[in-house]
Amino acid sequence: MYISELNLHGFKSFAKKEKIKFGEGVTVIVGPNGCGKTNIVDAIRWVLGEQKYSVLRSGKMGDVIFNGAEGLKPLSVCEAYLTVHNNRGKLPIEYTDIEIGRRVYRDGESEYFINKTPCRLKDIHDLFVDTGMGSDAYSVIELKMIEQILSETADDRKRMFEEAAGINKYKQQRQSALRKFDAVQRDLDRVNDIVQEVEQKAKSLSLQLKRFNRHEKLSKELFDVEIELAFVKVHDYESELIPLKKSVSDTQSLKKEKVSDTTMLESELTSVKKIYQEQQEDLRKKQFQLQDLEKSKSDSQNNVLIWNEQQKSAEININRLTAEKSVNKEKKKSLNDKILTYEKDAGGLEPDIKSQKQIFDKKNKEFNKIEETYSSAQEQIKGLEKSRWDSQEKIVGERSNLDRAISSIDERTTVIKHLNSKKTILENDQKDFSLDQKKIDSQAEKCSIKVEEIKQEIVENQKKLETGEGDYAHLKMEIHTQQTELQSLKSQLIFFNELIEQKQGYPDGAKTILSNQSKYKGLVGAVGELFQVKSKYEIAFQSALGNWAKCIVAKDKQSAMNIHSLAKSNELGNFSIIPINELKKLKYTKPKPPKLSGLIGPAIDYCGISASNISLAELLIGNLLIVEDINKIDFNDSLNDWDFVDLNGSFHGVNHLIKYQDKSKETSIIGRKKKVLKTEKNISTLSKNIEKNEKAFFNLEKEISSLNDKKNNLTETYEEKNSELNDLKSIQIKNHYRQSQNLKSIKELDDEIKQNNSDLDLLRKKTKELEPSINKTDKLIIKLQNEIDSLSKDFLKIQSKRDSFQHKAQEARIDLLNMENRLKSILFQMNAATQSVSELEERDKDINSEIVSLGDLRKSLDIKIVKEENDLNTIIGQITKEKSVFDLKEQSVSDTFNSMENLQSKINEEKQLKENLLEQQKNNELRIVELDQKIGNIKERMMEKYNSKVPKDLIVDKDIDELEDDIAKIQTSIENIGPLNMAAQEEFEEEQSRLENLLEQRIDILKSEENLKETIAKIDVVAREKFESTFEEINHNFSKLFAMFFDGGTASLSLSAEEDPLEARIIIHAQPPGKKNQNLRMLSAGEKSLTAIALLFAIYQYKPSPYCVLDEVDAPLDDVNIQKFKRVLNEFAQDTQFIVVTHNKLTMEVADYLYGVTMENKGVSKLVSVKFKGEA
Fold it and tell me: How many CB atoms lie within 10 A of CB 650?
């Protein structure tokens, strides 16, 4: 299976349709930088479904569309089709050739095709799954990958291995799990904070509840005292009410007698008031009638005035229209008279115009004839004058040349004298320059020797400085590395101390007991802390001891029981305890270990436990053997009495228990104190080394500073001397230049003198030639002037005659034009007058219509005015009558009002007597009401405050003052309690319930935390296994390929000494044939590049693809290494199709197909193919 064809249209710089045919073997693509070669590689990636813009070297997907060039507009769409030849049937499709297509538009929308049929990107991915041809295949090797391989940081190199191993998804899952773990930690912190807050709140509410109960008791006492006080007060108020109620009853009897007299008077007053109201109503109606009549009168008067004005206006308009009609009649008569006059004048002018036109034509003909004679004479004179002017110009030029030649002769003579003088001066200067040059050469030679001496001294100082700076950089890097390592050790120490302090890994009960050892007498420690094993055996002991390592060790049985009782009473949680003195009573005989291959020895010999506690080791690991690998042990009956554990944590017990302890799953609790001591020792040693290096660093810094000062001084001296030497050289150059210029000037002066003498001879010869020509031209001018004078006399006569004829023709033309203009004016005036007559007749018709309309309006207004004046007289009579009636009614209303006033005065006197009685009754009633209100208030207050009635019978031994004193004391006690939370009981129960829920949440979060820890550990295990298997396979491939590329030699990969392979750096070891070094930095640039290519091929072999694109990977290789590269390429090409982008001619030799990419037009790529095998 291989790529057989690629069709492009509009993809990046390929504006036009281009077809590239590939075959099995090697296809090479060449061309200058920037012509678009890599765009072909991008097209293959793109059509296979690549979605990352950065891989396609674009900012967005629309950028892959051709963006225009000179003479070509940008395209809105691009497409590419890739044909895959399925000759080996790897693709799950029945066709031999499968065409994959992709099209994209400016908005970034993509379309995908399989054999011209639209499909999804997923369909293309599914088609190429497990074939090594997808967009995610490791099939494109670029030059930048070599740089990543050779990178000093090794991060890029590590990233390539991780991509090949496919563990990026695991890293993402781990990052996701860590983010969740952080979130769980935050949730746990938040829940802990809330639990603490709720616990404090519940405690506070408990105190509030106690205050609330105290308040309830005092409130009950207050109720009893206030009931007694209320009873006493109510009894006193009721005793005062009895005499007051009797006085009120007597007053009411007297009030009834006065009421009957007042009633009669009020009845009479009511009758009079009713009559008064009726009279007022009648008067008001009469007043409204008068107002209506006055309004009607005013309306009629206004109508009469308006109609009279309209009548006058109509009469004025009729008079105006009649006058306008008369004026129009006069205008029409005048205009008709003018029209007749215009017609007469126009008829008289037409014969005169015809006659005048004949006169003009005759005179114009005569003028044209004389004009021809005039023009002929004028041309003849002009010809003669031109000849004269030409002759005059010629003679002026010749005379000018003659004058210039004479002047030049004098000038040249003077110049030759001056040049000879100047030449003498320059020859004298040349002698002086030669003497100065000898002195300057001597000074420059001495200065040059001094400069070279200083320069040599600077070079020697620079070597010392470079050596010192190299040592300085190395020492600085070493100090930085040591400081980083020190920081790491300090972090480890903190971590180990935290593990010891927090007793991480122990059960809750054991953790609490170990954290508070002073409280528990007879406590020795934990089993895990007593075993101080080497790190090599740590995982073996952790696996063998298992949960025994988490047991507590007590001095004796009594101490163990005391610790057990105290911990149980405090509900500390789970723990196990071993009394060590009881173990010492047990007899232990150390068995002889069997002879086995891979046996390290009895575990008791490596446990590191103190002699006082050895009985503990005898109990737990007395029959335990440590072996290299448990899988290599041949278990038989002779080994039945032994437990076995290997260095990887695999355990095989006497009781046939088989288990495995994974060191990545949990932190070991064995030998933590030993780790702390070891780490502290390492920190101390490293701190001393850093201090020592810092002293050496300081001394080296001083030495470098001294060398730099010396360098600056030498440089300054060198620059001064060099400047002096440059000045001397500059003077030398200037002197040489002056001499050369002086010699050049002397030569130029000789040439100039020679040239001037030659010019002088020519000028003298030219002067002799010009004099005869000037005399001849003078005679010709005189002859031509005579001929011009003779012709000018005849021309003046012809001109005078022509002017006379021209004047007569012009006068006839003017008369003709005046007549024609007059006729046009008359015709225009006649038309205007005719139009005006038509307009006046139309206006007369409108005036007649308006006069008739206005006459009808006048008649209508006369009728209306007469009728309205009659109605107005009737209204005025009615108004006079109604006013008389209104005056009589108004007098009657006044009399009734006076009677009503007299009755009201009598009623008021009776009321005054009654009010006095009422005042007395009112005061008594007010006091009764006041007492009733006080009694009611007391009862209402007791009902409102205590929901209780005042008792009718009660025995009270205290008076009001004593009762009030008791109430004041009880209220003071209540106030001293302070503010109360009335909902304390409910809130306390609610907070207790909330606290229980939060504690349950904390348990759930802790479980989630444990689950996430397990998930992260599992992810690490899977990723580590995949990485290690990938690393081993690539390492194997790399060793073989390195030997192929270098014709021998050895190479390998290794991981730096880190506990976790995923965190380790990848180190390349390479030893070409005939060399001893294995450090990549010690190789030449070409060897480094070839080693990197070998590693890239090794990674490619791990994830092989039917095709491989090499984008300028051979650029760093020289001719020798190119030959090696070609040989390997040919071997690989037996099974893999290669598409190689290169500039190297030697690489081109390996090509089965060769394509050239050019850019004839800027921004537009074009293909050129060369056939080697098959078609291209």
Answer: 20
